User: Which sequence fits this backbone?
């Protein structure tokens, strides 16, 4: 019988902008997320701004959506869910205590860049920001919970985003390296595991979401942004190893699994190309240190000409990651035929797979896809792996003060079983952090009602509620899972 390795890192994951709140406290500068409104399945999230003295808003989540010259701004008549989120900033002790009660071995969290460098270009870091995370790390240490820190999780300082049009300038690399070097020096001895960029390949996914509307310029911007981020990541890995040889630095990729919709050879080939674009393009650069041969095909499709220097190529080669981490939620189909209904959801597109069930937000449940991805990725890179996001976003009901969430338990159980099968196949899987271990603001829709947590937080889509924390049924279930090292998966 295959078992999870003895020191398997069980835990949960969050991101600063989705849990912390305190958006203007402790000397923090504004992040792009601070000027992003709430949306829903029907309505996108908007960035609010002023341009030539006029107020405006544009759908999007990244500074790249802002029109040239626009300044992101907070408007009094708009609601910004990330301003308070679930107020981890003031509740972190209580929350970490609950994580410890579940038996967490690891907690994946991110740092808000604008808490450390409020506009991103100051010479000296903001001491209050550094102190906040130091206190969080110390609190985790108290319970022997290992922090796994994402350095950049969809959260650039607004000032940088505007000035450099969301990574359209090489100067962003130096800004990022200054920021990470500060973290690596500051938290030596408190943190061991680091991830450079959350879902770095999402830039490609966002390009894909544009469908036929993609212009050569859009593609140029997306691939150039990625290149600068690859170099920034590689230089971060090198800096980390120089500062502390024990640091383990990983890439973080959105685990994008697609299947050919039919046996039509064209679907098979298209699906292979989809894997290359969505999974291997970033994985190869970050794990192997060079662009794969198929990169030229991707660039040529949109006449992309990248600014790549010899020094960049050297940095990429010398800054390959120590581990591969990824998020995994659902899978998609690649086909030019009609095989299922048209899917609809946040970050979801294409036809539905008739063999799978779909959540209220249009995401399929596919544990086999997780096993498949683990096997493919381990075979390709031979690096230790962690699944650092996985979970079901669902509407929870509070009944007599209790939250019964068997759907979440079912989802997680199936995915844990899938991981077990991959381990049996020889995959060197080291950890599992479920997404949104405490309810948080959805990145895609800005809603609170899309809940992932083991811990319910009393707050709604308008930010109304007491913020009281209540363990759900899944809390007690996950506690047993961890205590039995993944053996006891029953309710
Ligand atoms: C991942 C992100 O893409 O998916 C998270 O890293 C995000 O930040 C998660 O929250 C789930 O997506 P959503 O839209 O349900 O919040």
Assistant:
């Amino acid at each position: 019988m295959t078992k999870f390795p003895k020191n398997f890192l069980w835990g949960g994951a969050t991101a600063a902008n989705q849990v912390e709140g305190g958006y203007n406290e402790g000397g923090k500068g504004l992040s792009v997320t601070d000027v992003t409104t709430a949306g829903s399945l029907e309505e996108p999230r908007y960035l609010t701004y002023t341009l030539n003295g006029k107020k405006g808003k544009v759908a999007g989540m990244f500074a790249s959506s802002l029109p040239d010259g626009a300044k992101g701004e907070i408007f009094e008549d708009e609601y910004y869910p990330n301003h308070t989120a679930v107020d981890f900033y003031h509740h972190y002790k209580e929350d970490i205590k609950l994580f410890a009660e579940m038996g967490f071995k690891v907690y994946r969290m991110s740092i808000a860049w604008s808490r450390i460098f409020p506009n991103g270009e100051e010479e000296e870091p903001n001491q209050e920001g550094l102190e906040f995370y130091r206190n969080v790390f110390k609190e985790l240490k108290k319970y022997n919970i290992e922090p796994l820190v994402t350095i950049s999780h969809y959260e650039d300082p607004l000032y940088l985003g505007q000035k450099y049009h969301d990574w359209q300038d090489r100067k962003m690399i130096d800004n990022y390296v200054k920021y990470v070097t500060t973290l690596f020096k500051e938290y030596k001895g408190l943190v061991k595991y680091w991830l450079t960029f959350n879902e770095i390949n999402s830039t490609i996914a966002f390009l894909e979401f544009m469908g036929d509307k993609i212009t050569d310029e859009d593609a140029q911007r997306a691939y150039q942004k990625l290149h600068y981020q690859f170099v920034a990541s590689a230089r971060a890995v090198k800096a980390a190893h120089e500062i502390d040889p024990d640091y383990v630095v990983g890439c973080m990729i959105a685990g994008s699994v697609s299947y050919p919709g039919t046996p039509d050879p064209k679907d098979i080939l298209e699906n292979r190309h989809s894997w290359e674009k969505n999974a291997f393009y970033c994985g190869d650069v970050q794990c192997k240190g060079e662009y794969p041969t198929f990169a030229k095909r991707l660039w040529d499709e949109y006449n992309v000409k990248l600014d790549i220097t010899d020094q960049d190529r050297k940095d990429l080669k010398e800054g390959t990651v120590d581990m591969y981490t990824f998020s995994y939620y659902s899978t998609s189909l690649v086909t030019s035929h009609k095989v299922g209904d048209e899917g609809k959801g946040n970050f979801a597109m294409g036809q539905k797979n008739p063999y799978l069930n779909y959540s209220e937000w249009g995401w399929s449940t596919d544990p086999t896809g997780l096993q498949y991805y683990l096997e493919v990725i381990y075979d390709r890179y031979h690096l230790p792996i962690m699944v650092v996001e996985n979970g079901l976003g669902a509407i929870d009901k509070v009944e007599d003060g209790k939250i019964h969430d068997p759907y979440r338990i079912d989802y997680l159980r199936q995915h844990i079983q899938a991981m077990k099968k991959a381990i049996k196949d020889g995959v060197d899987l080291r950890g599992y952090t479920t997404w949104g271990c405490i309810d948080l603001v959805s990145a895609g829709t800005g809603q609170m009602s899309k809940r992932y947590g083991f811990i319910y937080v009393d707050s709604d889509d308008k930010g109304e509620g007491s913020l009281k924390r209540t363990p759900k049924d899944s809390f007690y279930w996950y506690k047993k899972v961890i205590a039995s090292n993944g053996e006891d998966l029953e309710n």
